[in-house]
Amino acid sequence: MNETILQKEDVLLKEGIKILIEKFGIIDTNRFINGIKEKRTESVKRHHKWQKELNEKEFLDQIFS
Question: Helix, strand or coil for residue 55?
Fold first, then answer.
């Protein structure tokens, strides 16, 4: 069985970005990192919209019936 060694978060981030820059260059690495953030923001906005339109009583009745 192989032993997995977890890296400290700052080391993991630094090495990951270094690899991305070597493979894709600075501009595409930046696009990649920003794309992740934008996708996450979109899912949060979608969830907030869902919550705002939610009929709480109807929702809870469906779950607990």
Answer: coil
Question: How many whole angstroms separate alpha carbon 33 and alpha carbon 19?
Answer: 13
Residues 36 and 18: their CA atoms lie apart, in Å, by 17
Length of the chain (residues): 65
Closest among 4, 1, 28 to 17, alpha carbons compared: 28
Quote the pTM value.
0.46
Residues 42-60 pLDDT 10s:
788 888 998 999 998 998 8
Residues 6+ apart with CB under 8 A from 7: 15
The amino acid present at 7, given as its one-letter code, is: Q
Q: What is the mean pLDDT of the chain?
A: 85
